[in-house]
Amino acid sequence: MRQDALPLYLQIADELRRNIEESVFNVGDQLPTELELSKRFGVHRHTLRRAVEVLRQEGLVDVERGRGTFVVAPIALPIGKRVRFNEALKAQALTPSWQVLRIVDMKADPKLAKHLELELGASVILYERLGLIDNLPINISSSYFPGERFPELATYCENYRSISQMLLKEYNCDHLRRSTRISARVARPRDARLLKMPANSPILLSESINADQAGGTVIEYGVTRFRGDRMELVMEHDV
């Protein structure tokens, strides 16, 4: 297909993408203003915005209202046996933080009972948080724990930033990832709002089963929704 057969906004997106790949614009750089780019390409701002939206959905740029459009790099998160989210981000000179969304005591439905290997109706604690990296909302994690195995969990959740540290210090429990399933789908309205994403934006969905290293008992079922435009999940082969 000839380049000039593409819609104009895709041609503009292609040229800006090449500029980023060829380091005309580096990570952290601000792209020229809408007015400057409109004059450069000889198009209306509406056409330019469609081009920039293509790059935003590809995770190449981030549009900050009132500031401009900046070149970004996808954030890589290794997925291995160890559950070490905070450490992986700090190793990339990124600053993770959390906002607690809810802590709920609930009963195990058939799905939770299966994943946590519990009886139907058993006590389950849902601990849900909004994860931020350098103050940018990046994921929503819903962690389900067997309530009988972890008494007073709701109280401890308020005092720890790391689930791994909480389980180790309060329950002498070192958890390992037993399995992880990753898929892609469109963000649901609540998730899109919390992640500050446009409606119908893509997310990466990670479902994990975590077990106690000592006895192999399942201790957590985790469901995490990552912004698809900013995250890369890297599967590690543990030796």
UniProtKB/TrEMBL annotation:
Keywords: DNA-binding, Transcription, Transcription regulation
Record NCBIfam families: C_P_lyase_phnF
UniProt protein name: Phosphonate metabolism transcriptional regulator PhnF
Record Gene3D superfamilies: Chorismate lyase-like, Winged helix-like DNA-binding domain superfamily/Winged helix DNA-binding domain
Keyword Transcription regulation: yes
Domain HTH gntR-type, chain residue ranges per copy: 6-74
Source organism of the structure: Adonisia turfae CCMR0081
A Pfam family: UTRA
An individual GO BP term: negative regulation of DNA-templated transcription
UniProt-recorded Gene Ontology molecular function terms: DNA binding; DNA-binding transcription factor activity
